[in-house]
Amino acid sequence: MADVIDVAKLADRREKAQAYQGTDKNIQHVFANMTSSTLLPGQVALVGAGPGDPELLTMKALSFLLQADVVLFDYLVSEDIMALVPDDTICVCVGKRAGHHSVPQEKTNQLLVDFAKQGHRVVRIKGGDPFMFGRGGEELEVLFQAGVSFQVIPGITAAAGATAYAGIPLTHRDYAQSALFVTGHCKSGGAVQDWQTLARAHQTLVIYMGLMNAQTIRDQLMAHGRSGTTPIAIIERGTQASQRVNVSTLDQLPVIASSAQSPALIVVGEVVELADKLQWFTSQSQHSQHYRTA
């Protein structure tokens, strides 16, 4: 994948971005004034794809996807979003999956540097927001050391997007006055979670990549004061047509997690009680599922 590619044979993505403007005059006006949305040869754009629904992409993210000569993507970027990439764009999968062969981070870093040094317009697209448990900062550090120019286009993080589509507000005056986002899959040798803080009542805890550690999460939260009857939800494939939401209680978390599929979020807190009332997305999608486990 790191072999030199003849840049002259690649189409000019800027023209495709301009062609995408459509016929609506308001849309044309917006695109015409996106003067900062130019991806230069030899530059990398770190792009947040959001949680999966392609309509949640920012206009800037879409513009850069249409300009890119090369797109490096991972498994959290939905197929619907990747379908927006022009057919002749070079797409390289650098995804990681627990328990499966995956591209080492060092290889991904080197590909970004190599493609940029060859003069390509490079998009590194990540699910959600690249600075929210996405290792985007690590990749930019490598680009900085290599002298490669870069831009960052934020995306809607899964904690905000998936919970909204599941009818679970992150905060609510009657239920939660704060929200904490944590990862359930820490770096080996990294800091231990502050379980005392995570177990506080009347706050929303959103756990990324926590399915494999559901037993530990349940045990630690309950050991530090969270009641076993605390409402929880596991949101699978949030914001996508195949979204599935399972609402239960903290003491049942390991059982529910054992049958859940990634990508999934674990939500712990009183706000989950509102899911039955506010599950707007389920009523609009025949393929979406929302159910409660006693």
Search tags:
294 residues; alpha/beta; Cobalt-precorrin-4 Transmethylase, domain 1; Methyltransferase, Cobalt-precorrin-4 Transmethylase, Domain 2; 6-stranded mixed β-sheet; 5-stranded parallel β-sheet; 19% strand; elongated
Describe the SSE topology.
Blueprint: H1 13-19, H2 25-32, E1 43-48, H3 59-67, E2 70-73, H4 79-82, E3 90-93, H5 105-117, E4 122-126, H6 136-146, E5 149-153, H7 158-165, E6 179-183, H8 195-198, E7 204-208, H9 214-223, E8 231-236, E9 244-249, H10 253-258, E10 264-268, H11 275-278, H12 280-284, E11 289-292
Fold and architecture overview:
Its EC number is 2.1.1.107. There is one protein chain. Helix 1 packs across helix 3 (59-67). The strands form 2 sheets. A 6-stranded mixed beta sheet has the order 6-7-10-8-9-11. It has a 5-stranded parallel beta sheet with strand order 3-2-4-1-5, with helices on both faces. A hairpin with a 7-residue loop joins strand 8 (231-236) and strand 9 (244-249). It has 12 helices and 11 strands. The protein has 2 domains: 7-156, Tetrapyrrole methylase, N-terminal domain (Cobalt-precorrin-4 Transmethylase, domain 1, 3-Layer(aba) Sandwich); 159-292, 2-Layer Sandwich (Methyltransferase, Cobalt-precorrin-4 Transmethylase, Domain 2). By secondary structure, it is an alpha/beta fold. 30% of the residues lie in helices and 19% in strands. 41% of the residues are buried. The chain has helices spanning 13-19, 25-32, 59-67, 79-82, 105-117, 136-146, 158-165, 195-198, 214-223, 253-258, 275-278, 280-284; strands at 43-48, 70-73, 90-93, 122-126, 149-153, 179-183, 204-208, 231-236, 244-249, 264-268, 289-292. Mean pLDDT is 87; it is low at 1-14.
